[in-house]
Amino acid sequence: MAFIDEIKAKAKSNKKTVILPESMDRRTFEAAAEILAEDIADLIIIGTDEEVKANSEGLDISKATIINPHTYEKTKEYINGFYELRKAKGMTLEEAEKTVLGDYMYYACMMVKMGDGDGIVSGACHSTANTLRPSLQIIKTAPGTKLVSAFFVMVVPDCEFGEDGVFVFGDCGLVQNPNPEELAAIAGSSAASFKQLVGKEPVVALLSHSSMGSAKHDDVTKVVEATKIAKEEYPQFAIDGELQADAAMVPSIGASKAPDSKVAGHANVLIFPDLDAGNIGYKLVQRLGKAEAYGPMCQGIAKPVNDLSRGCSAKDIVGVIAITAVQAQNS
């Protein structure tokens, strides 16, 4: 069974409610129609009657719950709740009302905060900052989280590497230039995400332009230090580095460049040294390798909130909704 089919089956086994705040985008409704037809998750779509009608024409979304923030009976409760959360930061009740009614992502986060939804998918027409800022202000980080980061699930067709072509790439969407401690935290979170979603043991490689000391540079030193920290903090996972990408994935090259490493040549979780490398890497694999790219998925928030690439398709959104529903089963 293909990865995304397994995810859909898991989601169906214990259905959760996912909130979609981007009613101003046609792709939201195309994805919603497919999710509802396959009975993968319950959906709440936030929007006015005019927005919903304009963008859902010809699509069957009759099983979705449509909430208009301007008329919904619990809107005042959400506004008051947001005010209570932010008043210590100087927010007035009037500002709280303007924010919650003016930005559907804030409204969605208040719904999750107050138990009226299990997760959120946004980002098709909003920046990562506009997706994550409300999440961190309202839902906040999960207990024990050192860092909120992002990952992609990459599914590469006809690929013998990784877990039959399935990888987790981190961080490709959020943390710009992680220090060694942050990079180690990304490695640990990405390993846990792989295990939760793929159901197999993660094999984690911290990537570099160097393999086991083949080059000397401050950028290499950062990865070496991060690997040391990650091994100490997450002993339950197989983690190693620094490794070049081919040494991490290809058994023969891993055996040649890092013969003493149990990770080299077998990695299914690839940790990039910074956001530039991660973003470039996932997009190259997606476009040139014709891979499915699901994400950026967030890890470290108390409830699942997942971002989308603004270049995403409706099919991509379907996958991220299904993954969000599975994450919600364990949050």
Provide a descriptive summary of the structure in words.
The chain is α/β, with parallel strands linked by helices and 331 residues long. The chain is 45% helix and 15% strand. It has helices spanning 3-13, 26-38, 49-55, 75-86, 93-102, 104-113, 128-138, 180-198, 218-233, 245-249, 251-257, 275-288, 314-328; strands at 17-20, 42-46, 65-67, 119-121, 149-155, 166-170, 203-207, 238-243, 269-271, 292-299, 305-306. A six-stranded mixed beta sheet has the order 8-7-9-6-5-10, with helices on both faces. The protein has a five-stranded parallel beta sheet with strand order 3-2-1-4-11, sandwiched between helices. Helix 4 packs across helix 5 and helix 6 packs parallel to helix 7. The mean pLDDT is 92.
Assembly state (oligomeric): single chain
Order of helices and strands: HEHEHEHHHEHEEHEHEHHEHEEH
What is the fold named in CATH at topology level of the largest domain?
Rossmann fold
Provide a count of the helices: 13
Mean pLDDT: 92
Short description:
The chain has 331 residues and is of the alpha/beta class. The chain has helices at 3-13, 26-38, 49-55, 75-86, 93-102, 104-113, 128-138, 180-198, 218-233, 245-249, 251-257, 275-288, 314-328, and strands at residues 17-20, 42-46, 65-67, 119-121, 149-155, 166-170, 203-207, 238-243, 269-271, 292-299, 305-306. It has two domains: 3-140 and 302-328, Rossmann fold; 149-288, Rossmann fold (3-Layer(aba) Sandwich), CATH 3.40.50.10750.
